[in-house]
Amino acid sequence: MLNKLLASLDESERAAVDDEEYAVLKAVAAELPSVKRDVLELIPTLQLIQTKHGYLPRLALRMVADHLGTTVSKVYGIATFYNQFRFNPPGRNPIKVCLGTACHVKGGEIILENFERRLGIKENETSEDREYSLERVACIGCCALAPAVVVGEKVEAYVTPSKVEGIITEIEVRKEMAAREQKKDEE
Ligand code: FES
Fold it and tell me: How far away, in angstroms, is 64 Cα from ligand 1 center?
């Protein structure tokens, strides 16, 4: 299935599939045969792929359409309708900005804009180096800490624009320290 799909791509589409995406597509090709060939399985199948791989590669949507006997536009339409689905691989530091009511009232949109500016990406995007991904989420259940942001697994409370800078700086410092440690180990 995967080879057939790759063969149907033009050169630039094929070149855009990096090793990481290829590995995900290969895994999806191995998983799909266990999914019943029924269009009613569409949403559960997309959820399965996203849960396992963190996102829905666009080519995986073609494979799902082929397996369930439906059109790519239908699969794509459903996947884009529900905002639980994402089309970019999550970054190593996924940042989720809460835009539930309490966080919205306390300036969540401004916080999201600050992250966008600082990282040079828009919501639902991943930075080119895959270091960061950014998304808006509904209430994360800690409204007393609004505006709140989840960075990786950690909840950041009462986030302000200057705290946005602090969060990114902390990640960069941690990264730099890890790189130095690794270099030391290699010496
Ligand atoms: S609205 Fe943001 S934590 Fe509830």
Answer: 34
What does the pLDDT look like over 23-63, one tens digit per residue? 999 999 999 999 999 999 999 999 999 999 999 999 999 99
| CA of 145, closest atom in ligand 1 | 3
| Cα–Cα dist 89/18, whole Å | 12
Q: Give the integer Cα–Cα distance in Å for 65 and 173.
A: 44
CATH entry, 93-186, from 3.40.30.10, 1.10.10.10, 3.90.320.10, 2.60.40.1520: 3.40.30.10
What is the whole-number distance in angstroms between the Cα of residue 147 and the centre of ligand 1? 7
Mutate to test the pocket of ligand 1, among 97, 112, 139, 155 (most ligand atoms within 8 A of CB): 139
